[in-house]
Amino acid sequence: MGKRFYVLTRDLHLYTGLFLSPLILVFAVSVFFLVHSPRSTQGTGGPTRSASNLAVSTEIERLNGLDQVAGLRPALKQMGVEGEVNFIRRIPKEHRLVFPVLLPGRETMVDLDLLHRTATIAERSTGLSDAVVHLHKMPGPHNVNMRGNSTYMRMWRWLADLTTYGLLFLTLSGVYLWAMLRAERRVGVALLSAGGISFFGLAYAVAR
Question: How large a percentage of the chain has pLDDT more than 70?
Answer without folding.
Answer: 95
